[in-house]
Each structure stands twice: as C-alpha cells, then as structure tokens.
Amino acid sequence: MTETHATLPPGAPAFPPGRYGRRREPRRRRPLLTTLLVVALVAVMTLVSVRLYRQYGDPNYDAQVITYTGITDSQVLVDFRVNVPEGGSAVCLLRARDRDGAEVAREEVTVTARPDQRQVTTQHRLATTARPFIGEVVRCRPPA
Known about the structure:
three-stranded antiparallel β-sheet, Immunoglobulin-like, 144 residues, single chain, 1 helix, 2 domains, alpha+beta
C-alpha cells in the first residue's frame, strides 16, 4: 500500500513510493544511559572540585607577607601573618627568590597560635644560597 495525499494526516510530508526506501520507526530513548552519564559527570566534577579545594583553598590557613627585610647575600627576614583556627597551628612553606626569579631558599615553618588567638604574626630568617630579591609565603596548611 502506498501513501497518498488522502491517507496522510494534514501537515505530514508526502513521499513518492519506493524513492526513499522504508520509513524507520522513531528510535527509543534510553533514559538509563543518559542517567548513568549524568551521574558519572557529576562524580568526576565532584572529584575535581575536592582536589582543587585541597590544593588552593582553605581560608582557615590564609597567609600574608607583611615585609621582607634584612636582605644580605645569605639571608632574608620574612615577616608574615597567618590565619589559623582558634588556638591551632599551621605549617607554612616559605621561599626566597633572586632577581631572575630562581629559588634560592625554601623552608617549612610551623607557627602556633595562643588558645584565644586566630592570627599569628611571626618573623623567620631564611638562609639563602645567593642574594635574594624577595621573600614570600607560598602556602600554609594544617600540620600533619
């Protein structure tokens, strides 16, 4: 049986018989596959978010360099402030770089707050292998 204009619903296209082959049935949707893909995407995004938060964000251990002074051929004094949980401590990674940006010193320093204190201000002397240009706090983290 061929399609004629009389047997087609209004608005449906009329195809000449035999020209386009057999008409396909509409494909079944696969909601299970779509759901699994969405769940996998959410899991991957959650893992990426957790890793980035651990690497870059913990506002409880925020550090700021106040000054770096006492620059000689073999040292720099770094004054810095660290926010820690009340009465807690932090391990901060300090480094010094020369004028070209090469690292000339690196050291981990543990700072501890008094029981009623959230900010710790301290000074640390970094021994360097060459004349430093800048002293900086790379990051602070909770003690292991």
